[in-house]
Amino acid sequence: MQNKHSHTNLKLLQTLIFSAVFVLLALSADNKVFASKTANFFQTLPQQSDTLKRDTTKKVMKRSGLDSKLEYYAKDSVTLDRKNEIQYLYGGARVKYQGLELDAEYIRFDAKNKVIFASGVKDDKGKYYGRPIFKTEGQGSSMADSLNYNTETGKGIVSGVFTEQEGGFFSGGRTKMQPDNEFHVHGTTYSTCNLPHPHFGIQITKGIATENHIIAGPVFMKFEDIPMPIGLPFLFFPKPNKRASGVILPTPGEDATRGFSLLGGGYYLAFNDYLDARFTSNIFTNGSYDLNLVSNYTKRYRYNGNLSLAYSSSRNGLEGTPEYEPLKNFNITWSHSQGANAKPGTTFSASVNAGTSSYFRETNAYGTYDPTQALRNTMSSSISYGKVFGDGLFNFTSALTHSQETQNKSINLTLPDVTLNMSTISPFDSKKRVGEAKWYQKLTVGYSMSARNTVSTTEDVLFSKSGLNSFTNFVDHNVPITLPFTLLKYLNFSTNLTYNEKWDFKTIRNRYIRTSTGNGYEVRADTVNGFKRGGQYNMGGSLSTKIYGIKQFKGNGSIRAMRHVITPSIGFSYRPDFSKESYGYFLPAQYYTDDLRPGMSVPTGEYVKDQYGNQLLYSVFMNGGPSAGRSGSINFSMDNNVELKVRDRKDTTGTGERKLAILQGLTFNTGYDFYRQNQKLSPISFSGRSQFTEKLGINFNGQFSPYSVGQVPFTSGTGADQVTTYSYQILDRYIWKDGKLPRLTSFGFSFDYSLNPEAFKKRNENIDEINRQTPTANRTQEQIDQLNAISRDPNAFVDFNIPWNFSFNYRFDYNNTLGRPETRSVTNTLNFSGDFNLTPKWKIQYTSGYDFKAKNLSVTRFSIYRDLHCWDLSASWVPFGQGQSYSIDIRVKASVLQDLKLSKRKGYYTRY
């Protein structure tokens, strides 16, 4: 019982310490408020706060008789006191004087003392209106309760100022304007809340703002006009007029496993207007930490990009347990894009995402707690360069590619992948030809070359000696020759001849080792260095046409006409046998003795046979070479499109029509290989789609087998140990000989539907607006993260103007190759997502699905959002499954105070 109370007291103490740290950090967070201010303390007037009805008609300004430098206008009246040299302006007054523009309901100009006074007035109900709106030369507009400005000395006093600066608002208090752009403030509140009485703010008791520095103090936070008891005695910040380096304050948080945390703290380096760097870290009290270095670079009209280097050390258990041992991970990302007109004919781009397989899982997507990213199982990279030359005839590309599977830690690396393509040319055609080309002038020739240096291994072996020696390299050449022409006006005929040549710099020699039971064998491949070339060719042709069928319907029914378009095609191809011994591309497979010692495994003289008793051959090319066996086949295809022309019910004239696609791309395919030993007829495949309504469309595909299924005996062992078993297999017998139709072996069906498509439309419009307002080169990291989250998850965008949304997609798959109950496989899954407004300020989102075969829910996530005007509250919960976790954030909306937030987490890695 005592231990329980001790644990409770400890948790209470930790919470108090955490809260104190949060308050102190929040109070000191105003370095970001002032870090990027311009020279003038007053900058931009917020439109939503300006309730003054501005007169948009043209104002004819007059010059004052007291001072020729003063231009004035008044909607109501102008009074001149020549004795005291004072001019009074009433009702919608406006003056211009030496770069100062001033609008107010009442303005008084004292020419003798060189003082301008402006204020609003009260109406019959006591409402104060017509506040002064002023703007100095080179600066934005500001609003105040009253203004008193000496035009000769440049000094002035502004009461009740309200101005916006880069998303933040200064309100209340008094401001004294001094010469040389120096301002003294007293009792001013800074907040990102745009209300006259903000929900929260940083209260600046006294402060001095110069062109390059801000000195303030004491300062403290206040919520709903209630000051916090803890503050800071003074603050001193540089205020450059350009990007500046500085400290990035961390965000306090708490993780159920790793303890209290300081997230995102670090340092920002602004090298110049084209290059910067940001070093941040996440630090946890259990010893875990994450380090991240991000650099952005840009050169206008030329290129832009960013580079990220991340390292993590994670502890997910209590001290003394195996999980407490640190897990080291790293990740590298690089993105580079070139301007469209930077180098015409030349392109360079990069998209790199590489590192250890467990980085995103162990760091929980670098503290974002995004399950989509934390549970990702693939990574890929590509760095490519391209150039067009020879007056556009040749196109050269070179790429470095990488793909990584995080579950089994496999890596496929290509360094490099080079291609050279030549546009097709007509060697017998003339540029001076007039009229239709002759048949031989239609002949075209092309060329393409592909070269690769690639390796497939695991991440722990890649940089070892054996991993580096595993690279294979080859070059492929391809020369296609085609000759198209038309037969009988409606038949499109085309012939082709293709030559392929393969260059390998490593070949293989296989050794076949019998298994211990003697019923099978194991293949061991030896790599042989040396150049090897192999060439092959094939020829073919195709014939196609279109058949139209139209049916008109009379009467006043909804269906006016139906059109059926059939596109049949037939093709043939022939390829010689390149496995003959004279070519040297294939070697006979023979058994070797089982001896692991180098050079001691020798051939036994016995050759391997296939299931038909023929000698088995294998290719010496590592990455595919010329093909074995003669091939000659005919391919059949038939494409169908069915459309209805129906009456448009939205047309008020009653004569409008619209098209409705019933079947789109319903295609049947099959083929017949004359030289195949058995099952010469290929399976009959089909696919298609249909759009029943504007909101609902379906896709389907499948395959029919033309062969029967029967029991086939299999004998193993010899003598008394000989055993014969029977299994169902596909026979070389057409099924219609048994009086049956072709057997359905696979079928897939899917559709998606949204009950409120306006939600997706609104979401896409907002994404387009963000892209339009913030060019790629100028986006902040927060905007990049938000756009990435929106593109990954449709529910990541929260729009309170859409009261509800529900969408779902369904997929059904059936597979049964043998047509037997024991070989049948059926999967069907339903995924759905949506949201609804519980109140105008509460939004609830959900994403889930159901696997009917596994009888289990897929990854399920609930999110709750609360709009608190200038703050927002968000909570995410994955209640079960591999990514089980929750997170709660309350933060200021404005990015200028993005570090002013509180977070509570429980990651999927939590063990206790």
UniProtKB/TrEMBL annotation:
Segments forming domain LPS-assembly protein LptD central: 214-707
Pfam families assigned: LptD_2
Source organism, top-level taxon: Bacteria
GO CC, one annotated term: transporter complex
Signal peptide: none
PANTHER family per the UniProt record, alphabetical: LPS-ASSEMBLY PROTEIN (PTHR30189), LPS-ASSEMBLY PROTEIN LPTD (PTHR30189:SF1)
Name the UniProt record assigns to this protein: LPS-assembly protein LptD central domain-containing protein
Protein species of origin: Pedobacter xixiisoli
